[in-house]
Amino acid sequence: MTTPDDKDRRLGRFRVDPDHGSRLTTDQGIPVDDTDNSLRVGERGPTLMEDFHFREKLTHFDHERIPERVVHARGTGAYGYFEVTDPLTEYTSAEFLRDTSLRTPVFVRFSTVAGSRGSADTVRDVRGFATKFYTRQGNFDLVGNNMPVFFIQDGIKFPDFVHAVKPEPHNEIPQASSAHDTLWDFVHLQPETTHMMMWLMSDRALPRSFRMMQGFGVHTFRLVDEEGAGTFVKFHWKPRLGTHSLVWDETQKIAGKDPDFNRRDLWEAIEAGQYPEWELGVQLVPEEREHAFDFDLLDATKIIPEEEVPVRPVGRLVLDRNPDNFFAETEQVAFHLGNVVPGIDFTNDPLLQARLFSYLDTQLIRLGGPNFTQLPVNRPVAEVRNHQRDGYHQSAIHTGRAAYHPNSLSGGCPAVVPEGAFTHYQERVDGNKIRKRSESFADHYSQATLFWNSMSDWEKEHIIAAFRFELGKVEHRHIRQGVVANLNNVDHYLAVSVAEGVGVEPPAQPATPNHGRSSPALSQANAPRDSVETRKIAILVADGVDTGDVQTIREALSAVGAIPEVLAARDGEAEGSEGPVEVTRALPTVGSVLYDAVVVPGGKESVTALEADGSAVQFVTEAFKHGKAIGAVGDGIRLLSSARLNGVNDRGEALTADQGVVLQSASGVTGEFIEQFVVAVAAHRHTNRDLAPVPA
Ligand code: HDE
């Protein structure tokens, strides 16, 4: 049986520990007695060429960097395992999708797309979600994104799209942002981008955590059974903690306060044993139904609405180990859409077909030759035997004389055997050589409208604000106008709202009437919101804080899996009413944007001090602005008054728990307060507040 340990054990052979008691040596194993002074002529003389230790050390350093990925340069990864829970035996011969006793080891890398390796995590972008399954039948890579569609239909457009979204070539501005002329110039001239641009302008582009993000294989793939019969399949990852997003103002501030926000979040959750988990789901479409939809299954700018073909949950992915070395593992991992195992095959999606070329090609330049498959993180757990030889960084010592097939000198080995081999799906293909897209790819708007119609009011507001922000950064007015014209095919109200925000002519009539259909599964408002696990909750304190309140809040929140942190003006301890209260972090080192919720315990003196501290007042104001749960007990309510937050809502009523503001005027935290507060945190964001006048 393959267990995660198999990959881990194999990695173990390559680990080099800085053993206690070990000696410093050169790369040739020669012990070194001084690594702080170069060899020179006299104390003040020139350095000598013969100082081999100096030259080796500097040369190695000079060559430390490799090219970053041309896209998805910024990323982070982790190991874990996959288990099939509902076997797909009748559809595929892939063992890891059939055998419930297998625990297939995996490595997953999450990424942003446009930014450089050192760019911030919380930018508006698509997120990569790439999984390498080390199956017993060989490596299978599911190289997906957190959005189910893509910008273009044919891979030949990929260089154009990427050149448009990357920093502009004359001044290399802006970094990790789509808010600039070249991207929107491309987009307004290429209407097939419209559906994906709706996703990119939505909250999906701002995940709260990689652990709270869906994943999609995007293309239609094919499962192939033991008899060679095929079934179309779309792959989905669904996070156990629900799909949740940040808000735009928050993401921009986090990019400064903690550019590693998503990376740190994943790392810390795994270190804390709170292992992230996803459910693998499949949408299966029998081959006879290939043409049963009003879109083409081969068009990667389309989803199959879940209401038309339900997602069947089939397995579980758990990430439970951080890598030992970022470069060796996360940077050198090489994914390739073409890594498939028997039982999984491709379709003629022209985007997919282009990717089959690109991924292998890119590794050759990025990892410096054809032997990157021998890097520890890339090695399959399945045995590798073939006649591939030599090349840069060959680390295998192939013995014997015969590196060809057929041979008699090695007894004909490695031999070609039919059992268990990959057999390509025998699709009949017949046609003329043409450069032409199928008519069935021509509708670029219906699903963009479907997405828009499926959004809640708050999500729609965010989409409009995002278009306004991005187009507001576009200098050329004809581009702004062109985008609005495109949007007028999606929804008239959307087009008019965007036009009004960016100072161009709003269209008088809809270009295409809105079809009125929606798909509830697309809205994050319908994602489960019942857990506070791993949510970070700030407890604001100062000297004089009610010790009992802090203790009860801390214990109660920890008991439900949240992460409470006590924040005060200074690190160390605060002097509580009945003894010292340990401070987790000093306020100046954090900010409300790094927390999911905030609670202010009682204590007259403490609250008076917080009221006089602008950063504490701003903390609650900003949390309110971002729709987060806020709790206050006894005197703590006064801080909300200072922040002018315990006033009225947009209906002129006092703020209530259903708006995520949980107040308890009596002192001494009660069970009821905790219960209401936990529900408010689990709701993730409260959209029924009057946010416009709140300064943050
Ligand atoms: Fe990629 N993509 N891509 N892509 N992609 C790369 O491969 C490419 C596409 C995705 O964490 C590159 O190793 C082309 C769709 C992820 O290492 C490169 C086309 C989807 C990652 C490449 C696409 C993706 C990549 C850059 C259009 C979602 C990061 C470095 C035909 C289904 C993998 C590398 C990691 C990386 C090419 C479109 C996802 C250049 C030509 C659609 C998650 O090969």
TrEMBL record:
Keywords: Heme, Hydrogen peroxide, Iron, Metal-binding, Oxidoreductase, Peroxidase. Residues 1-22 have a biased composition (Basic and acidic residues). Its cofactor is heme. It comes from the Bacteria. Its EC number is 1.11.1.6. InterPro entries: Catalase (IPR018028), Catalase_AS (IPR024708), Catalase_clade2 (IPR024712), Catalase_clade2_helical (IPR043156), Catalase_core (IPR011614), Catalase_haem_BS (IPR002226), Catalase_immune_responsive (IPR010582), Catalase_large_C (IPR041399). Residues 25-413 form the Catalase core domain. Residues 511-526 have a biased composition (Polar residues). It catalyses: 2 H2O2 = O2 + 2 H2O. Residues 1-37, 505-529 are annotated as: Disordered. Belongs to the catalase family. HPII subfamily. Decomposes hydrogen peroxide into water and oxygen; serves to protect cells from the toxic effects of hydrogen peroxide. This is Catalase.
